[in-house]
Predict the structure.
Amino acid sequence: MKPDAVKAKGNQTLRSRLMRLVLIPLSVILLIDIAGSYFVVRHVANGVYDVELNEIARELLLHVTREGNDFGFNLSAEAERTLFLDEEDDVYYVIRTQTGNLLAGDPTLPVPKQLRPGKETAYYDDVFEGKPVRVAVLRGQPLIHPAVEPVYIQVAETQVKRGRYMRTLLSQVILPQVLLILIAGFLIWRGVAQGLAPLRRLQHEVGMRSHLDLSPIHTKDVPGEVEPLVGAVNDLMTRVDAVLGLQERFIADTAHQLRTPVAGLKAHIELALRENDFSQVQRALGHLYTSAERLSRLVSQLLSLARNEPHNVVANFQPFDLNQVALRATQDWVPHAYKKDIDLGFEGADKPVLLNGEAVRVTEMINNLVDNAIRYTPSGGRVTVRIMQNDAAHLIVNDDGPRIPVEERKRIFERFHRLLGTHEEGSGLGLAIVHEIATLHNATIVLEDDVDGVGNTFTVSFPISHADDQS
Ligand SMILES: Nc1ncnc2c1ncn2[C@@H]1O[C@H](COP(=O)(O)OP(=O)(O)OP(=O)(O)O)[C@@H](O)[C@H]1O
Ligand SMILES: [Mg+2]
């Protein structure tokens, strides 16, 4: 992957997101600013040129005369030319009496709306002969021979000058603003890129790592916002490191455990091959069989361990009666117990104990517990499997054999852990399997202190609500 390919497919880059968040509001502000500037500039332009229109109107008013009841208008052609001399715009005018009688000018100019009281001159935009015009309308008394009745003078001018003036003003006001926004956008773009540089360095550092290197990522130079993320990743790596360490240890232990029976097999085969005496060959084959059995037990326990690993299991929970399952499993051990002269008993609950779980795995758990109890209890002893229900469902396996020392009670659930001095065969995985199956069922397992100080009692407690949860 290229170093700057921070973007995952379909995901927006942080940079474009930031740009969007900053530039869109900035552009909206710019648009509002342009609209505002347009109105201001228009107002300024009108302010400048409206004064001229008013002056023309006032000049025209000077030429309105009155003799008796009649209005007149007296403006020489020369004076009119001078007054309306304009290289760019066309100027029109009309003078009317209050009653609307035409005194002079262009009668096609539309009659203005009524002027607001108190106002002498009003200005407005209009269209005349298909062209946009600005109109000034002046209400005034003729100065020569003053009259009671005022006259209305309209002066209309096309908007070429104003348009040019506005464009000049607008470009002077808006261009710098657009430039400012563009420069700000560029600076933000570059700033964001520089701000994200530590992230790219981080990506580079992680990308270049060996898959075996689970040491923490350096948080130096990492932005404060990203530090918790790096911390969480470091935390995860520490946990993965611990799990990998456990797995490595397990593989080493397994290899070690497998080596002994395999070496035994090899030694017995070599011995049998060297022997000519048939009875000796038979003896060697007998040992071979025992070693093979030990190996087979170890392999089946390893498989069971892998099968019940909580991370690997897709639980298929079904309701089942713990009472029934425990009774059947215990019954299967009767011949075995009988052979060893162990009194194997079962004390069930007086009604079905319904659990949601996997009956096959729970049977496997009971088998391991009962197997241990029979195996490690001397002949003539007593083993009892008991099912009880109160706020939880309890599976209790009790024996009256030698007690497991208190300091060993936690460790016996570890893989391959066996008590020193045990003469019985075993791979040291049974209780680890029991623990896994208990975890899978949300159950707890404890090895209790016996009140009478004799034997061992393993109690597995299944939460009753668990049954309701899963159903
Ligand atoms: N009921 C018991 N009485 C006395 N010691 C026990 C009892 N159950 C377990 N132990 C001790 O705990 C150790 C671990 O038991 P665990 O079932 O895990 O392994 P194992 O019996 O040695 O091998 P396997 O995997 O074949 O069951 C045993 O080796 C034994 O020393
Ligand atoms: Mg065992």
Observations:
- DSSP finds eleven helices and 14 strands in the chain.
- The pocket of magnesium ion (ligand 2) is lined by residues 368, 371-372, 426, 430 (CB under 6 Å).
- Confidence is low (pLDDT under 50) at residues 1-8, 466-471.
- The longest strand covers residues 131-140.
